[in-house]
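Hi there. Long-time user, first ticket. I'm pasting a complex I've been working with (about 808 residues overall). I'd like to know whether the download I got is complete or cut off, because the file seemed smaller than I expected. Thanks.
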Amino acid sequence: MPTVSERGRIMPDSPIRKLAPLAHEAKERGVKVFHLNIGQPDLPTPPEALAAIRSIDRKILEYTPSEGILSFRQKLEKYYHKFDIDVTADDIIVTSGGSEAVTFAFMSCLDPGDEIIVPEPAYANYEAFAIVAGAKIKSIAGNIEEGFVLPPIEEFEKLITPKTKGIMICNPNNPTGYLYTQQEMNAIRDLVKKYDLYLFSDEVYREFCYTGAPYISAFHLEGIEQNVVLVDSVSKRYSECGLRIGALITKNQEVKKNVIKFCQARLSPPLIGQIAAEASLDADPQYMLDNYNEYVQRRKFLIDGLNRIDGVYSPIPMGAFYTVARLPVDNADKFCAWLLSDFQYEGQTVFLAPASGFYTGSDKGQDEVRIAYVLNKTDLGVCLKILAEALKVYPGRKERKGAV
Amino acid sequence: MPTVSERGRIMPDSPIRKLAPLAHEAKERGVKVFHLNIGQPDLPTPPEALAAIRSIDRKILEYTPSEGILSFRQKLEKYYHKFDIDVTADDIIVTSGGSEAVTFAFMSCLDPGDEIIVPEPAYANYEAFAIVAGAKIKSIAGNIEEGFVLPPIEEFEKLITPKTKGIMICNPNNPTGYLYTQQEMNAIRDLVKKYDLYLFSDEVYREFCYTGAPYISAFHLEGIEQNVVLVDSVSKRYSECGLRIGALITKNQEVKKNVIKFCQARLSPPLIGQIAAEASLDADPQYMLDNYNEYVQRRKFLIDGLNRIDGVYSPIPMGAFYTVARLPVDNADKFCAWLLSDFQYEGQTVFLAPASGFYTGSDKGQDEVRIAYVLNKTDLGVCLKILAEALKVYPGRKERKGAV
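Hi, the file is complete. Here it is re-exported in full:
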């Protein structure tokens, strides 16, 4: 048998999905498993999107332009203007999900051996997409004790080498729910400008900011307009993860030229997804508000509940629909596996994502988990009860000295 | 401004799409442009697929499993069995189009610097996907005079180095329409076995074989079951290019493990596309037969017509819906551009794909074009007339000595 690629071998298993076989086995045993491990919202897709799909009256489901359907891109332009993101339809390239946008951004800007700096915990697949591009992620770990604020910019600067080509951020953040402040974004901007770096900015959770603090887009930062590559997706904001529609947005013509080549090679993003996503942009404002309010309530309910469990600590996330919480356990990987394979409370258990997979450059987060609040409050209440009961009997329970 | 990637810079422009701006300008001038440049069939998508889309009654458009929806993969298993392709649902991984299948195949099997051998003219994007993977294509040019038969296997063997990891074929072939014989496939099998290579086999046109000669799948070849990575797509066979649904099929567990990692990183293939593609597998046999018969007639009509034009030669394609034809011109790139920018016949012109882009390793094909018979016979008749008139007045007309 011919050997497989080393690149495939070093690809990390998804921290979100690697325990899925254990969850499957639990279900086979008749245990109900609550999924808080994955960012799959339970909220409805906009009726406008579903109606658009149901009323498709084409005879042929053709390729769309490689860069996406023009009318969709024009509507996205207007959408971004609402957030004071000054881009035109020409700057917007439609991709197969935010995943493809990150991949094409790295492919177009980075060569094998190039480095990017990523504050962590970070969305685990950035590492995977960097491996795809042959690039290297240098990470700087944040702290749960400090609520996952941006690590000091001097820490970033220390990591800069001749190979450093960019910084990647996610704002509001997955997995922490942190929202970068104006001051933090300005510090990033200054560093990007000083070293002429790319700023890859994943802003797919912009609709979900809960504290009144402003959402600062990378495109709001003056003087680095040519350095910004913004990643977007309709998956989370309209609860339509299955459409696989995202976007890569850049004003840099050279980057755009490269990205278009990768787009042309894969021919077209999904047609039906674009039609549905375009219709979603006309979603009733009440729909958006209802979903927003639902997340606001879940957030309060979940975080209050977590912090009431003995030995558990979660900072208050400012955006997105995740939190990273610290548990009184020896090892969160073991604990999450144990929850699925050895534990049940009244025939139920909970699937959490160990946070270790979100820290690629350090051994931090060994006692942390990511929790996605993608279930309703009733279910979240059950999950909190399950977690509390589990922590009482988990054999690897471990108190942390000086815990917050 | 930070520099863009070298990888992006060396990505070839699509030979199929690079003249699109000239076509756009022609249309702006009021010229009707017939598109024979692109493999976008004009035939209808199966009504079963459209009905499945219109009757979607989900409230949330969720991620599907990263490897694709199980019921779809199970139905694909049965589909392949009809062609004596002995695979199980476990061997089938659903991808975002055949494009992603080729990309993941290369990513999973090849490391930067690895080489694959490709008989050409070949589908241009194999080169693009090889660049994405950092791999190198070594090509062996076939000849229009010999009807694009497989070049002698000794030519392949001569190119084998320690870096050679595989052979990539497309059967039936895009762009030539050639269908490999049992003897040719056996020769490939023996070479694959001798050097323990991967055989990447793109078989998306299997439904379109016109001569009664058998379609030989790579999976029909005994003794190399672990070496085969088959690429498939529903785009062409059901005229649903816009769905972006393909498949990667392998019995090699190590390859599969790598591919799944790449699948998990991009989360999910398109949900709606999978639902429609699954429904397409139930398409009325009469639908498939009607489309087949339509291509049979167009093929005869087009090839007869081409060979009646003075100085034009096309072999008779045995499958797919393309032919590579030789024209009495100095340079087909120039001629195709001239057709769009300087020529019209009764307010109409034709968009052909210069064949040079399908030959990446040689300067062959300078006077060849790829023609897709994706228009009805009436339109094909007009196209033939336009081409004949164009060749009468094209300033770069050039007769070839000893033309067939």
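A couple of notes from our side: The CA atoms of residues 152 and 344 of chain A lie 42 Å apart. The two ends of chain A are 54 Å apart (CA to CA).
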